[in-house]
Structures are given as C-alpha cells and as structure tokens.
Design a protein that fits this description.
single chain, 60 residues, mainly alpha, 2 helices, elongated
C-alpha cells in the first residue's frame, strides 16, 4: 500500500501560482513572436523559465 500525502495549499498560494503561470504563458507566447529579434525571444524564454522556477526554500 502506498501512503497518500495531501498537501494543503492556501488560497493565496494558489492565486500566486496561477498568476505566475499566466505570466509565464504570456512570456512564452512572446518568445514565439516573429516580430521580435532572436535575442528578444531568448530573453522572453528566460523570463518564462523564471516564472516557472520553484521558489527557493528557506531555513525556518
């Protein structure tokens, strides 16, 4: 049998995650724009990855 762990996430954390996902999606869409230079598209992709990166853990 496998133990099931249920992670409780507050509504504010869920909202923050949703906002970051929307921002990442916008940055990704921008990275596929033909109107931007190659460097601008690379920067947009880097921005997208930044939104999707998990937050650093703190030692509390």
């Amino acid at each position: 049998m496998q133990a099931k762990h249920q992670v409780q996430v507050s509504q504010s954390q869920q909202a923050q995650a949703a906002r970051l996902l929307l921002q990442a999606n916008l940055a990704y869409g921008e990275s596929n724009s033909n109107g931007l230079s190659h460097i601008q598209r690379l920067r947009a992709r880097q921005e997208c990855r930044g939104y999707l990166k998990p937050p650093a853990k703190t030692n509390c």
